[in-house]
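Two proteins follow. First one:
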Amino acid sequence: MKWIVMTLAGLLACSAALADDWRREGSDAEKLEQLIRAMPNTAALMLQVGDRYNNLYWAARQGQWEYAGYQLAEMQGVLRRNMVTRPGRAEDLQAFMDDGFEGMEAAIEARNDELFLRAFEHMRGQCMACHAASGYEFIRLPAQPPRPDNPALYE
């Protein structure tokens, strides 16, 4: 009997929560405010950029140039998304986009390891310059990212 009462109480609580669902019942202003609050912050998006950074490096180092190009495009997409979700960072991010990837597309297209390493080091330096300009100079990127847990992705 006790579990029936608890189950009913839980169902009532859930239905009450649904009745107060801002997505359905909120004003347009409330909906907009909640959606803005739900957008990922820069730190969340930078975790995605970091994963792409690592994958870009290892894909190229293992000769998986198509996958490296994909990682580069995805990294750029995340940065463009960050410009939308955090417009206060858009200027710094655009400056990085304008210079940070210099030589990277050409290196990937040429499938040239030496050019890639040069472009990667340039990108890494620009990443850290952007971090410093944003007050996050303590975020440093390794010259050689950690090897992925699943190197078979690149083989």
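Second one, unrelated to the first:
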Amino acid sequence: MSWFQDLISKPYPGDKRDEVEKLLAELVQIGVREDYLSERPGAGFNTQCRHIRARAIGTRLNDIGGLALMEYAQRTVRRKTGKQGRTLADHLEYAWAEIGDWMK
């Protein structure tokens, strides 16, 4: 899906708009401040070195809108994180492994 289509059509119900926007903003901030992956567990990262809060956000996004919303969130991260966007989107992809239908 393109950025233009993302502007026109949102993959979540209208009554969840505020919650989704808040979760997306937090997800972007996590990426910018901490990244979604770490070289070692601890301090907010699980034993697989994946950001614990980012995974919780992914789980909630999956509950709200499934794979389509998670893909939308990944594109949002890529778009809103500047030069780091591609790398952070790739890290998020791995961090969300095994949530819902993500990477099956």
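SUMMARY FIELD: Residues 30 and 73 are 13 Å apart (CA to CA). The two ends are 19 Å apart (CA to CA).
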